[in-house]
């Protein structure tokens, strides 16, 4: 059996678990993902909804997504952490936002989507200084 995907919000009020292998691991650069994450793109793990569970109170926010159908993103109402999504066009899946994993090193992007909307927000460029800790 595959190790479960386990994560939580910043304050720990909401925890989740997904058993089974991921269906996909990707980075989405659509404008919605940029806005909701405040970053260049959002690392996402797609899992089966039947294998996903969570504990704690969540606050959902639903908006028409890039697919033209509603997508619900779920946040912790206490600390505001973006935790997981439930796209209405594919009710059989849940999208976990990889930054909330207890072990984010397990995330291995297989592809990037909406690359046409990727802007110069991404600081992963070899030509700029990189610091292992806080910049001096």
UniProtKB/TrEMBL annotation:
SUPFAM superfamilies: Mss4-like (SSF51316). Residues 5-120 form the CENP-V/GFA domain. Keywords: Lyase, Metal-binding, Zinc. The keyword rRNA-binding does not apply. The keyword DNA damage does not apply. Gene3D superfamilies: glutathione-dependent formaldehyde- activating enzyme (gfa) (3.90.1590.10). Belongs to the Gfa family. This is CENP-V/GFA domain-containing protein. It comes from Caballeronia udeis.
């Amino acid at each position: 059996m595959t190790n479960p995907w386990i994560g939580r919000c910043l304050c720990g009020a909401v925890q989740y678990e997904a058993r089974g292998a991921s269906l996909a691991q990707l980075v989405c650069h659509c404008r919605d993902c940029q806005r909701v994450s405040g970053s260049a793109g959002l690392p996402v793990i797609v899992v089966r909804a039947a294998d996903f569970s969570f504990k704690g109170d969540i606050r959902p926010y639903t908006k028409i997504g890039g697919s033209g159908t509603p997508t619900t993103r779920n946040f912790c109402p206490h600390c505001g952490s973006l935790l997981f999504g439930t796209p209405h066009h594919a009710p059989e899946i849940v999208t976990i936002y990889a930054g909330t994993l207890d072990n984010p090193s397990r995330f291995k992007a297989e592809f990037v989507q909406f690359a046409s909307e990727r802007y110069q927000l991404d600081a992963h460029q070899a030509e700029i200084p990189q610091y292992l800790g806080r910049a001096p």
